[in-house]
Specification:
The chain has 84 residues and is of the alpha+beta class. Helix content is 25%, strand content 26%. The model has no long low-confidence stretch (mean pLDDT 87).
Length: 84
Protein backbone atom coordinates (compact mmCIF):
# COMPACT_ATOMS: atom_id res chain seq x y z
CA UNK A 1 0.00 0.00 0.00
CA UNK A 2 1.03 3.59 -0.49
CA UNK A 3 0.57 6.69 1.69
CA UNK A 4 -2.27 5.86 4.08
CA UNK A 5 -4.29 8.98 4.83
CA UNK A 6 -6.40 7.22 7.45
CA UNK A 7 -6.69 3.82 9.12
CA UNK A 8 -8.89 2.69 12.00
CA UNK A 9 -9.72 -0.60 13.64
CA UNK A 10 -13.40 -1.54 13.35
CA UNK A 11 -15.37 -3.47 15.98
CA UNK A 12 -15.27 -6.61 13.78
CA UNK A 13 -11.45 -6.61 13.82
CA UNK A 14 -10.98 -5.29 10.29
CA UNK A 15 -9.18 -2.08 9.40
CA UNK A 16 -10.93 0.64 7.40
CA UNK A 17 -8.47 2.73 5.40
CA UNK A 18 -8.40 5.69 3.04
CA UNK A 19 -5.38 5.73 0.76
CA UNK A 20 -4.20 5.16 -2.79
CA UNK A 21 -3.92 1.46 -3.68
CA UNK A 22 -1.48 -0.43 -5.87
CA UNK A 23 -2.55 -1.49 -9.36
CA UNK A 24 -2.34 -5.14 -8.21
CA UNK A 25 -4.66 -4.53 -5.22
CA UNK A 26 -7.04 -2.52 -7.43
CA UNK A 27 -7.26 -5.26 -10.06
CA UNK A 28 -7.60 -8.03 -7.46
CA UNK A 29 -10.52 -6.24 -5.81
CA UNK A 30 -12.45 -6.07 -9.11
CA UNK A 31 -13.35 -2.40 -8.61
CA UNK A 32 -13.10 -1.38 -12.27
CA UNK A 33 -16.52 0.29 -12.03
CA UNK A 34 -14.75 3.06 -10.06
CA UNK A 35 -12.67 4.12 -13.06
CA UNK A 36 -8.95 3.54 -12.74
CA UNK A 37 -6.46 2.85 -9.96
CA UNK A 38 -5.60 6.51 -9.31
CA UNK A 39 -6.95 8.47 -6.39
CA UNK A 40 -7.94 7.71 -2.82
CA UNK A 41 -9.94 4.60 -2.02
CA UNK A 42 -11.98 3.63 1.02
CA UNK A 43 -11.37 -0.04 1.76
CA UNK A 44 -11.39 -2.73 4.41
CA UNK A 45 -8.49 -5.00 5.26
CA UNK A 46 -8.41 -7.95 7.64
CA UNK A 47 -4.92 -8.39 9.10
CA UNK A 48 -5.99 -11.81 10.40
CA UNK A 49 -6.51 -12.95 6.79
CA UNK A 50 -3.94 -11.08 4.70
CA UNK A 51 -4.32 -13.48 1.77
CA UNK A 52 -7.88 -12.22 1.27
CA UNK A 53 -6.54 -8.82 0.21
CA UNK A 54 -8.58 -5.64 0.42
CA UNK A 55 -12.24 -4.96 -0.24
CA UNK A 56 -12.69 -1.59 -1.89
CA UNK A 57 -15.83 0.10 -0.60
CA UNK A 58 -15.61 3.33 -2.58
CA UNK A 59 -13.43 6.03 -4.07
CA UNK A 60 -13.05 9.66 -3.06
CA UNK A 61 -13.47 12.16 -5.88
CA UNK A 62 -10.29 14.06 -4.87
CA UNK A 63 -7.65 14.39 -2.17
CA UNK A 64 -9.81 17.07 -0.55
CA UNK A 65 -12.81 14.70 -0.56
CA UNK A 66 -10.66 12.01 1.06
CA UNK A 67 -9.60 14.49 3.78
CA UNK A 68 -13.26 15.38 4.38
CA UNK A 69 -14.14 11.69 4.78
CA UNK A 70 -11.40 11.39 7.39
CA UNK A 71 -12.76 14.47 9.21
CA UNK A 72 -16.28 13.01 9.20
CA UNK A 73 -15.08 9.61 10.39
CA UNK A 74 -13.10 11.12 13.25
CA UNK A 75 -16.06 13.21 14.40
CA UNK A 76 -18.37 10.20 14.34
CA UNK A 77 -15.90 8.09 16.35
CA UNK A 78 -15.69 10.65 19.19
CA UNK A 79 -18.22 10.42 22.00
CA UNK A 80 -20.89 13.11 21.73
CA UNK A 81 -19.71 14.83 24.93
CA UNK A 82 -16.27 15.49 23.42
CA UNK A 83 -17.74 17.07 20.26
CA UNK A 84 -19.25 20.02 22.14
Amino acid sequence: MRHVLFSSLLPDGKQVCISPVSIDAYEASEAQALGDDTGYFIYEYDERQPASGIEILGKAASYEAAERLVDIFLKVKRPLASQE
